[in-house]
Amino acid sequence: MSSFRCEKCGADIVEGRGGYYITECEHYPLEDNQILHSGIENIEENEMGTREHNVESYLKRCVESVGGLSRKWVSPSHIGVPDQIVIHNSRVWFVEVKTDDGVLSSAQTREHVRLQIEGAQVRVVYGKTGVDEFMEEVLSCK
Question: Is domain 52-140 annotated with CATH 2.10.77.10?
């Protein structure tokens, strides 16, 4: 789990499933473990590569630029579901977004296999290069 600091007061922002959890911040008056979905901008890139959030935003912009839909998928009762559902030209993909050096967890691998057994198209993209490669696939499906 990664953590960052509020740019205004330095409070810890801890990354968790479904969004950013924040604690002890006067700028975001939330109780511990309440999900904050907006209001945090310009989170710096860490040393390990492009932040996953930035890659997700890039995926969303790319998909929407060609007339498709990209929706965040959060399933509290199912750990390991892919990050995004992408729809374009009547095709649906479940897309897991990782940094360039990201690694799938065992729960993610297990959930991806379950989806694929049911016939779902599951893709894992690594960084912006992975998004670009995925977009080539999306655009080739007409």
Answer: no
